[in-house]
Specification:
By secondary structure, the chain is of the alpha/beta class. Helix content is 42%, strand content 13%. It has two domains: 237 residues, 3-Layer(aba) Sandwich (Aspartate Aminotransferase, domain 2); 133 residues, Aspartate Aminotransferase, domain 1, CATH 3.90.1150.10. The strands form three sheets. A seven-stranded mixed β-sheet has the order 2-8-7-6-5-3-4, sandwiched between helices. A three-stranded antiparallel β-sheet has the order 9-10-12. Strands 1-11 form a two-stranded parallel ribbon.
């Protein structure tokens, strides 16, 4: 099997699994209890908090463990709305956000909040000036992702954060996709809140992080006990939190080396595919992009056919975000970037990871051209284009 869907999820690293294992069996203490077994769980959990904080340049007290990146987004957005509703009801985001952000904003619109969905350019890039122009006296939150999960475009978060800070508006970024691929430092990015997830960095599913800068006070996401400084009441998922901490430690040790190699493989993949398949082009910004995501448009065919054909050859890929892969609708990201409906249906996302090899990349470069050619020969879009002399 060739796995090229690391933007959807990643395999748990063996060192991460080994770190987690004791807390699934012998070291099962509830960290809120007082005896020694519980104390060991608490100590491991706090060590993980320290690791995450150090990696993103935060204080450990600013790290809140959550159940996933989606929960972190929901807590930041809906929590801000509750905390600030007496001072304003305007929120700014973009048209290309992850659905965890978009659907949170849509839910708030039903409660009387007003949301500005800013457009992006053909590369999926938002301009800081757009945010500055959209800010109003009643704006309470700006939430814009650090890097897009479908096309890999990196947004100018630091510049946008500086604008928000000058205007006194809280700024949140979803950094789930960017963590471990590019630098993520909360001070450099000028963010007040930041969302992370473990399963994108070779950690376990079911655990995430919400960074809350000191002074940002949100109501509890879950009511009950006093866990996570009273912000998220539930018995902590110690094993997964420990796994997250270990995954972050591994990023600090080997992340830069991994990304250099992955970038080389990704460049090889892009050159090979675009060089051999006509009417195929890379989407997203050509330079301001994550090192591991290669997103393509194949004109005159649909992405579903490519995915099924690749799966038959034991290649795992995606046609956009994994969260909406069962939908027949085209990518909302590509539509926001200006691609027509029929063209956006022909998308293919290949996202690389630390275990991919040159041989795997070369295998995909060999496999994909005949798949596209076969699908085009069956496509009425291709036949129509040929009859019009477009191809």
């Amino acid at each position: 099997m060739i796995y090229l869907d690391h933007a959807a999820t990643t395999k748990v690293d063996p060192e991460v699994f080994a770190a987690m294992a004791p807390h699934l069996q012998d070291e099962y203490g509830n960290p809120s209890s007082l005896y020694a077994l519980a104390g060991r769980s608490r100590a491991k959990m706090e060590a993980a908090r320290q690791s995450v904080a150090a990696y993103i340049g935060a204080d450990p007290s600013e790290i809140i463990f959550t159940g996933c990146g989606t929960e972190s987004d929901n807590h930041a957005i809906k929590g801000t709305a509750l905390a600030k509703r007496d001072t304003g009801k305007h929120i700014i985001t973009t048209e290309i956000e992850h659905h965890a952000v978009l659907h949170s904003c849509e839910a708030l619109e039903k409660q009387g909040f007003e949301v500005s969905y800013l457009p992006v350019d053909q590369y999926g890039l938002i301009a800081p000036e757009q945010v500055a122009e959209a800010l109003r006296d009643d704006t309470i939150l700006v939430t814009i992702m650090h890097a897009n999960n479908e096309v890999g475009t990196i947004e100018p978060i630091a510049e946008i954060g500086a604008i928000c800070r000058e205007r006194g508006v809280w700024f949140h970024t979803d950094a789930v996709q960017s963590l471990g691929k590019i630098p993520v430092n909360v001070d450099d990015l000028n963010v007040d809140m930041l969302s992370l997830s473990a399963h994108k960095i070779y950690g376990p599913k079911g655990v995430g992080v919400l960074y809350l800068r000191k002074g940002v006070r949100l109501p509890p996401f879950l009511d009950g006990g006093a866990q996570e400084q009273g912000r998220r009441a539930c018995t902590e998922n110690v094993a997964s939190i420990v796994g997250l901490g270990k995954a972050v430690e591994l990023l600090a040790q080997r992340g830069q080396q991994d990304n250099t190699r992955i970038q080389t493989l990704c460049d090889r993949l892009v050159e090979g595919i675009t060089g051999q398949i006509p009417h195929c082009f890379l989407t997203g910004h050509p330079e301001k992009r994550l090192p591991n995501i290669a997103s393509f448009i194949m004109n005159y065919i649909e992405g579903e056919g490519m995915l099924l054909s690749l799966d038959f050859e034991e290649v795992c890929a995606s046609s956009g975000s994994a969260c909406v892969s069962g939908s027949l609708d085209p990518s909302h990201v590509l539509m926001a970037m200006g691609y027509p409906h029929a063209v956006a249906h022909g998308s293919l996302r290949l996202s690389l990871g630390r275990e991919n090899t040159e041989a795997e990349i070369d295998r995909v470069i060999d496999l994909l051209p005949p798949i596209v050619e076969r699908l085009r020969e069956m496509s009425p879009l291709w036949a129509d284009a040929k009859s019009k002399g477009e191809v």
